[in-house]
Write a structure and sequence with these properties.
single chain; six-stranded mixed sheet; alpha/beta
């Protein structure tokens, strides 16, 4: 069995280009970079690959990768009691000085107990003394809400890796510091949160009333961000076919988004919006095309990039193909669609998010049905064969008519798509991806509750029934129970961290919450009060709380169906109006 796992690692590494192997004989600081999901998922994550490169390009560090074993391999690990080992040199986690978890999705928290168990590593930080490696929590989940893992990890990287890593490593490399002194020194660094130095206080009704910091540590930890993206080498340094993007070289176009959609955490926790220069991107394109003939452009809204057409033309002039992670409906043009067609795109994904104008105004989407249908017509006329539509159900104040509007909009899109398909002799497919609304921290909807499970299931059944009657159209949806779990984990305080071991072992979420006196509804469906302190507000995100509350109240003023007149947006950092109608 050990030989089978060794061969599995070896086969994956043989298919890679760009992995870095350092000698363990060197006096380097040893960092285990862990993605708590499978190799396929982790190697598809651009942030994970960037951190790997940032660490390994230093002369004083060694970084090796760990992943959750595949299901068939997991059983072998459990039977043999052999430890989880790194991909590069097959060392166990306990051989490293620092264990750094990169976590992008809250539901992956339930994979942590498996990784700790396979590594014979105590799960809670209080159980680990000086003899154990330090455990760090990074990735976007760390600066949305770190509290569910506050009793598990030793320190949290609050923000983007590029500005945090140099100061962090300067302290960690000082081997004369004992664990306690080192953690105290780390807690004073910008963007480093050491949970053990903060004590939460709860009201009798369960809410967090305040978080008491020890003397000498900041009352809040300020999220760090890179001001100049040209200074970051964010691209897919390791190439392998065994990922979701194995046929392309990924490059990051921008970070953040100025659109201000009220439900979107990425639109707020990556403020301010930043772009790479065109020259920098074309340099990355030249490098990427040496490895793959397709360039994958990555951003919250790729089509919002100021020089998108010049960038696309530059890729095509270099005989490259283009793949884009996202398209904005109101930013599409005939010229851009022609470029997509030249690049061999057969499928495109767009995100109306809601079917009715009322709900699109409610979430501040800022597009009309006329714009949606005009964009669909351009895509159809441009020869795109398959279209994916993203919708969210369960927004606050959603009515049955808003669900009906998703069906009506889909029918209108389907009519355009089928007519274009008949003209070209190939109908193509429409796919709806429908997922429940999750009220995320640091968004205007952080005060809202998630809609109840029964109601969401009813809406989903209505949609499934109606969409099944539309030709060449199918519907996919996330599990509602998985969405409830994600809401619970993304909005929880550090008390729920005590339940992770039992949740990972398969205990029922509702029953476990009831047993432990931590009602599921308290975290998931409850509407929060205007003055309630949130667990995640240990972080200073740089977005004014008053602005978020104001946006929530503005959303509630949207009551009737109206033509598209997007509310003036305000910057979450400075409060100035942007993109006004």
């Amino acid at each position: 069995m050990l030989r089978a796992r060794h061969n599995s690692h070896k086969l994956k590494i043989e298919k890679e280009t760009g992995a870095i192997f350092h000698s363990w004989n060197d006096d380097r600081y040893r960092i285990a970079l862990v993605y708590p999901n499978t190799y396929h998922q982790g190697m598809s994550n651009l942030g994970f690959l960037t951190v790997y490169q940032l660490l390994n390009q230093r002369d004083d560090c060694l970084c090796e990768r760990f992943f959750l074993p595949e299901k068939n391999e997991l059983a072998d690990y459990e039977k043999s009691s052999s430890p989880l080992v790194s991909f590069e040199a097959e060392h166990p986690l306990t051989d490293f000085d620092l264990i750094a978890f990169s976590i992008s999705f809250e539901n992956d928290y339930l994979n942590l107990p498996i990784i700790f168990r396979l590594s014979n590593l105590p799960f809670f930080s209080a159980e680990r003394d000086q003899s154990w490696p330090l455990v760090l929590f990074g990735g976007v989940c760390a600066f949305i809400n770190p509290e569910p893992l506050a009793d598990v990890v030793d320190l949290v990287a609050v923000g983007e890796a590029e500005p945090i890593l140099p100061n962090l490593l300067n302290v960690l490399l000082n081997k004369s510091l004992d664990r306690e002194t080192g953690l105290k020194k780390l807690s004073k660094l910008p963007g480093i949160y050491v949970p053990k130095f903060y004590s939460p206080v709860y009201a009798k009704t369960g809410e967090v009333t305040h978080l008491n910091p020890e003397n000498g540590v900041p009352t809040q930890v300020v999220r760090q961000f890179l001001t100049d993206l040209d200074q970051s080498p964010s691209r897919s340094f390791i190439q392998t076919e065994e990922t979701a993007f194995g046929n392309m070289a990924l490059t990051e176009v921008s970070r953040g988004c100025s659109r201000g959609c009220r439900f979107c955490a990425a639109g707020f926790v990556y403020l301010p919006p930043r772009e790479r220069s065109l020259d920098n991107l074309l340099e990355q394109v030249d490098t990427g095309l040496c490895q793959r003939n397709r360039i994958g452009l990555v951003a919250a809204a790729v089509s919002d990039y100021a020089h998108i057409q010049k960038l696309q033309e530059g890729i095509l002039e270099r005989n490259g193909q283009i793949s884009m992670s996202s398209l904005r409906l109101d930013a599409l043009s005939v010229a851009e669609i022609e470029i997509l067609q030249q690049a061999g795109h057969k499928s495109v994904a767009i995100a109306p998010e809601a079917g009715s104008q009322r709900m699109r105004d409610f979430i501040n989407k800022g597009i009309s049905e006329e714009q949606i249908l005009a964009s669909v017509q351009m895509l159809a006329d441009g020869g795109i064969k398959n279209l994916k539509l993203y919708f969210i159900i369960g927004f606050p104040a959603e009515q049955e008519s808003d669900i009906d509007a998703i069906v009506t909009l889909t029918e209108n899109i389907s009519n355009i798509w089928r007519e274009a398909g008949r003209k070209r002799g190939h109908l193509g497919h429409l796919t709806l991806s429908v997922n429940p609304f999750i009220p995320k921290p640091f968004t205007p909807f952080q005060w809202a509750g998630m809609e109840g499970e029964k109601s969401l299931k009813k809406k989903l059944r209505l949609l499934q029934s109606a969409i099944s009657r539309i030709p060449n159209t199918r519907i996919n949806n996330e599990s509602i129970r998985a969405a409830i779990l994600q809401t619970y984990l993304s909005r929880g305080d550090r008390r729920i961290g005590q339940l992770l071991l039992r949740l990972a072992a398969g205990e029922n979420l509702k029953q476990l919450c009831r047993k432990e006196g931590l009602p599921l509804d308290f975290y998931v469906t409850r509407e929060r009060g205007v003055k309630e302190l949130f667990p995640w507000e240990i972080i200073d995100q740089g977005v004014m709380r008053s602005y978020l509350w104001q946006e929530y109240q503005r959303a509630k003023l949207v009551k009737t169906t109206s033509p598209c007149t997007p509310a003036c947006r305000r910057c979450g950092v400075c409060g100035d109006e942007i993109n006004c109608c």
